[in-house]
């Protein structure tokens, strides 16, 4: 079993240049498609260049696309981002659709994300608007004036009524009913 | 005073038991009961009290008016909201970046408004939805800034003594969202008229 996942670089969310605050800006600067003109492993790349590259370039005028033929070598996609990252994708035996999919991914990324594990899925500059919760939040301010030692606060907070208190309550209810009856008469 | 008139008056005055009321006060109630135990000659306060039926609605109206005034004068300050998005709840304010995991159709540069708002809060007030705050009250806009893949995750299965071992690697699609605005645009407690019911089939 590989241990590569254990050694990923942990990172928080970063966005280059406050992207998206005003408008969105594509972070991919340049793409180089390297391929062989007659090798079989480059067939998908050659088909992509013939059929789909023009459409891709028309869709994304902000990305410069270069092509570099070289003899008897595996085709690769090399992407350069605005922050200086370069990323290679090995495109050996890829079909033209696969290449298009990888290009779309490179286009929508902001940097080389391989080997980076996100620690949090949210970034905020304002972690609390109403103030962080403390044990004294929403408590009775009367507690500020409490004098210690205080037998009331020392013991456990018992909400249940004792049997004596229940009986007293019943007695009082009875009294109220009596009064009501008398008044009704 | 004849009987009917008296009944009328009694119905206006709701009864509350003094002991019950003191219990709800917690610590103070305990103190009170302990005092009454000690000095049994002291009689608890009168079992009758006048309850104003409109008191609570008046308080609510007052609070709603204050919040509406604050929003109208745009003195509410920074707002935060809890939104339900792609099966998860996020606490967001203006300028946040959040990551939606899994396949999600919006593309880079798309502007979307988040409508499933569960809660909106400012430093002075909190509007809690039941379960959502009224539609159109809050305007939350976001921009998709990035679509990428997560790190490679490993799914390893093994059964002992059964010669069974599988290892799978996978990545999850991730979408980064920038929150552009969190604003209260509607009026509190004044929902828009319900329309489109002529077409609905019940």
From TrEMBL, chain A:
Q: Which residues form the Ribosomal protein/NADH dehydrogenase domain?
A: 37-110
* Main location class: mitochondrion
One GO BP annotation of this record: mitochondrial translation
Q: Where in the cell is it found?
A: Mitochondrion
Q: Which domain of life is it from?
A: Eukaryota
Q: What UniProt keywords are attached to this protein's entry? A: Mitochondrion, Ribonucleoprotein, Ribosomal protein
Q: Name one GO molecular function term.
A: structural constituent of ribosome
Q: Name one Pfam family in it.
A: L51_S25_CI-B8
Record's Gene Ontology CC terms?
mitochondrial large ribosomal subunit
The similarity comment for this entry is:
Belongs to the mitochondrion-specific ribosomal protein mL43 family.
Protein name in the entry = Large ribosomal subunit protein mL43
Q: Which organism is it from?
A: Rhynchophorus ferrugineus (Red palm weevil)
UniProtKB/TrEMBL annotation, chain B:
* Example of a GO MF term: RNA binding
Does the record carry Ribosomal protein as a key word?
A: yes
**Which keywords, in A-to-Z order, does the entry hold?**
Ribonucleoprotein, Ribosomal protein
GO term, biological process aspect, one = translation
A Gene Ontology term for the protein's cellular component: mitochondrial large ribosomal subunit
Highest rank taxon of the organism: Eukaryota
Keyword Disulfide bond applies: no
The entry sums up its family as follows: Belongs to the bacterial ribosomal protein bL21 family.
Under HAMAP family, the record lists: Ribosomal_bL21 (MF_01363)
This chain's protein is named: Large ribosomal subunit protein bL21m
């Amino acid at each position: 079993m590989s241990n590569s996942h254990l050694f990923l670089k942990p990172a928080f969310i970063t966005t280059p240049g406050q992207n998206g605050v005003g408008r969105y800006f594509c972070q991919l600067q340049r793409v180089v498609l390297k391929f062989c003109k007659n090798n079989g492993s480059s067939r998908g790349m050659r088909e992509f260049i013939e059929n789909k590259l023009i459409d891709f370039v028309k869709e994304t005028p902000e990305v410069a696309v270069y092509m570099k033929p070289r003899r008897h070598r595996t085709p690769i996609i090399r992407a350069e981002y605005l922050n200086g990252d370069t990323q290679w994708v090995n495109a050996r035996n890829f079909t033209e659709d696969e290449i298009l999919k990888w290009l779309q991914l490179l286009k929508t990324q902001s940097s080389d994300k391989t080997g980076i594990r996100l620690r949090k899925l949210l970034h905020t500059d304002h972690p609390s608007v109403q103030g962080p919760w403390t044990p004294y939040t929403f408590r009775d301010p009367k507690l500020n004036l409490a004098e210690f030692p205080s037998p009331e606060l020392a013991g456990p907070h018992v909400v249940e009524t004792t049997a004596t208190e229940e009986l007293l309550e019943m007695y009082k209810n009875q009294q109220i009913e009596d009064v009501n009856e008398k008044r009704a008469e | 005073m004849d009987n009917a008139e008296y009944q009328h008056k009694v119905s206006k005055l709701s009864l509350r038991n003094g002991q019950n009321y003191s219990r709800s006060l917690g610590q103070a109630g305990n103190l009170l009961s302990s005092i009454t135990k000690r000095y049994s000659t002291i009689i608890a306060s009168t079992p009758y009290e006048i309850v104003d039926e409109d008191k609570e609605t008046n308080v609510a109206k007052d609070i709603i008016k204050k919040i509406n005034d604050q929003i109208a004068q745009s003195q509410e300050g920074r707002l935060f909201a809890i939104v339900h998005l792609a099966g998860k709840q996020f606490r967001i304010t203006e300028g946040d970046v959040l990551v939606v995991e899994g396949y999600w159709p919006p593309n880079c540069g798309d502007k979307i408004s988040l409508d499933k708002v569960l809660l909106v809060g400012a430093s002075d007030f909190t509007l809690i939805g039941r379960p959502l705050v009224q539609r159109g009250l809050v305007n939350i806009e976001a921009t998709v800034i990035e679509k990428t893949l997560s790190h490679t995750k490993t799914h390893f299965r093994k059964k002992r003594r059964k010669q069974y071992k599988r290892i799978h690697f996978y990545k999850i699609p991730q979408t980064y969202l920038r929150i552009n605005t969190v604003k209260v645009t509607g009026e509190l407690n004044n929902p828009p008229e319900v329309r489109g019911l002529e077409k609905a089939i019940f």
